[in-house]
């Protein structure tokens, strides 16, 4: 019954969108993807490469979302945070840093944690700037320089992305 109602509503919308008074956005073609849950829709949008949806999906995996049938999975959370961070999404880079520094899902990795904090700071995340300076202050120069070298491997084209932010 719910599927029939949804189909009828979609048909009514289609008729309304085809009226002459409709604007160009309302005449845009509908995607022909059938989703069986909001979770499937969210995953699909993330897979299409939109960093906002990748970040949202990562958050769902980080905490779990029973309503969307998403169970907590730190590996998947890290995957989606990483996907968003590589595209310049500062909050995703920050969350990766937190995971690395706190050892969530894996062992503590302060070098990678510092690298992600500085990536997030480079993308404009203010708290990351402060935390990176604090973490850099307690690390040896050798470990801090390892973090510097790691940034470009974590986010290919990082220097170019950061220069566009300025």
Task: Tell me the CATH architecture.
Answer: Alpha Horseshoe
- The name of the CATH superfamily reads Tetratricopeptide repeat domain
Top CATH class: Mainly Alpha
**In percent terms, what proportion of residues is strand?**
under 5%
Q: How many E strands?
A: 0
Structural Rg: 21 Å
Number of domains: 1
Q: So what's the overall shape? A: globular
What class, by secondary structure content? mainly alpha
Helix content: 55-70%
Average of per-residue pLDDT values = 82
Q: What is the terminal-to-terminal distance?
A: 53 Å
Main sheet record: none
Low-pLDDT segments, ≥5 res: 4-26
Helix count from the secondary structure assignment: 9
CATH topology: Serine Threonine Protein Phosphatase 5, Tetratricopeptide repeat
Produce the secondary structure layout.
Elements: H1 2-17, H2 38-47, H3 51-63, H4 74-85, H5 90-102, H6 110-122, H7 126-138, H8 141-154, H9 158-165
Helix pairs in contact: 2-3, 3-4, 4-5, 5-6, 6-7, 6-8
Describe the structure.
Helices cover 67% and strands 0% of the residues. The protein contains 9 helices and no strands. It is mainly α and 166 residues long. Helix 3 runs antiparallel to helix 4 and helix 4 packs across helix 5 (90-102). The chain has one domain (35-155): Serine Threonine Protein Phosphatase 5, Tetratricopeptide repeat (Alpha Horseshoe), CATH 1.25.40. The radius of gyration is 21 Å and the shape is globular.
């Amino acid at each position: 019954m719910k599927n029939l109602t949804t189909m009828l509503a979609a048909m009514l919308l289609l008729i309304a969108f085809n009226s002459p008074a409709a604007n160009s956005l309302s005449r845009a073609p509908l995607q022909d993807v059938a989703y069986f849950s909001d979770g499937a829709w969210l995953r699909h949008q993330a897979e299409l490469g939109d960093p906002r949806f990748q970040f949202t999906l990562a958050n769902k995996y980080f905490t779990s979302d029973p309503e969307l049938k998403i169970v907590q999975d730190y590996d998947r959370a890290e995957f989606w945070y990483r996907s968003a961070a590589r595209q310049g999404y500062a909050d995703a880079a920050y969350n990766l840093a937190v995971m690395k520094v706190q050892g969530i899902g894996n062992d503590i990795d302060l070098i990678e944690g510092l690298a992600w904090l500085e990536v997030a700071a480079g993308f404009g995340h203010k708290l990351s700037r402060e935390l990176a300076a604090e973490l850099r202050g307690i690390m040896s120069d050798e470990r801090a320089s390892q973090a510097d070298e790691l940034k470009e491997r974590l986010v290919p084209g990082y220097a170019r992305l950061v220069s566009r932010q300025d």
